[in-house]
């Protein structure tokens, strides 16, 4: 089990460095199945914060701070109700919901097209941030909502990927604190060695991602992320449904 968790974290970190997002999409469904909905999303949130924090220095000059604020503030607001909800739902329902959220978010991201209409930037950012914050807390997956915003607003890939990193740090850290408060300080049931292996896998993934970033096209990497995330989301839905039926 630990080997599969570590592999998921490694691949997620690698995709995060190449595409700017993808850590949660790749890692969340399988980690949720292996560790359970609550512990799994906590691990994904924590690793996402560490991963994004380490990437920030590499992309600092491309971060759009004003856009970050318009996305992050509404995201933080929705974290509170999402944290309250996930700490009280039964495990199978939470797991099934996580799988469905991943699949719906991925499909929406693929179907959305650049808008020919002029879309007001601030209302769109508020809506995207709110949806992303809720999904990040509930399922560990906050990137797709921001991706839809990026497509609609024609946000350049370089600035999009860079701005996502401090966004993930803010939202992930807030999610961790909110869940700790609502759950009475519950932490994932992992020993020190398990944490060392997970964090080491994260760092290895980032290093490989840094190297491959120069040689792998972002389009190919995004396609791989989508395929892996669809498989993981489908498995999470099936496993959650079987848990409800048991």
| Count of helix runs | 10
The stretches of 5 or more residues where confidence is low (pLDDT under 50) are none
Structural domain tally: 1
The count of DSSP E runs of length 2 or more, i.e. the number of strands, is 0
Q: What series of H and E elements makes up the topology?
A: HHHHHHHHHH
- Span of the ends, CA to CA: 22 Å
Helix content: over 70%
Radius of gyration: 17 Å
Features:
10 helices, globular, 246 residues, single chain, mainly alpha
Any overview of this molecule?
- Helix 1 (2-19) packs parallel to helix 9 (192-212).
- This protein has helices spanning 2-19, 23-35, 37-59, 65-86, 91-111, 121-139, 143-152, 157-182, 192-212, 218-245.
- The protein has 10 helices and no strands.
- With 246 residues, the protein is mainly alpha-helical.
- The protein has one domain.
- The protein is globular, with a radius of gyration of 17 Å.
- The mean pLDDT is 80.
Q: How does the SSE layout of this entry go?
A:
Elements: H1 2-19, H2 23-35, H3 37-59, H4 65-86, H5 91-111, H6 121-139, H7 143-152, H8 157-182, H9 192-212, H10 218-245
Helix pairs in contact: 1-2, 1-3, 1-9, 1-10, 2-3, 2-5, 2-10, 3-8, 3-9, 4-6, 4-8, 5-7, 5-10, 6-7
Can you summarize this structure?
By secondary structure, this protein is mainly alpha-helical.
